[in-house]
Amino acid sequence: FPNDPVFHVNRGIALYFSGQLKQAVLDFRKATELRPDYLEAHLSLASALAEQEEFEEAMREADRAFKLVTDREAPIYRRTLELQTHLRERSGGSGDAILEPAKRRSSRQQ
Measured at the alpha carbon of residue 106, what is the angle toward residues 38 and 96, in degrees to the nearest 5? Predict the structure, then answer.
């Protein structure tokens, strides 16, 4: 299992929900290292980082996740936007820089 990104995400989710955020972050990071295009790993990492109030890094991960979204992943795309909005609100920033990738992608899809 050490080289299985799905294993690391699943274990990370279990750790996340049991309140073991630092260990969850390690598993999510490992999953993104093993499979850089693994959308769920980036989203999960962003969520765990946000819970630890590591907002800048969480926003970077949310942006990485956003860049991986395809049309068939629209529900996850919405989750990414919700996470970006949540991060913007919690960090006290204006959010313009966070939402810019979403605006660019929306304009390309129309």
Answer: 90
pTM higher than the cut 0.85 = no
Least confident of 1-10, 18-27, 91-100: 91-100
Amino acid at 3: N
Per-residue tokens: 40: 């769920």
Categorise residue 38: left if φ over 0, alpha if ψ from -120 to 50, beta otherwise: beta
Cβ-count burial of 58 within 10 angstroms (0-12 exposed, 13-18 middle, 19+ buried)?
A: buried
Q: Please, what sign has the CA dihedral across residues 10, 87, 37, 71?
A: positive
The identity of residue 96, as a single letter, is D
Instruction: Give the position of tokens 């799905």.
Output: 6
The more confident residue out of 24 and 92 is 24
SS3 of 35-78: the string is CCCCHHHHHHHHHHHHHCCCHHHHHHHHHHHHHHCCHHHHHHHH
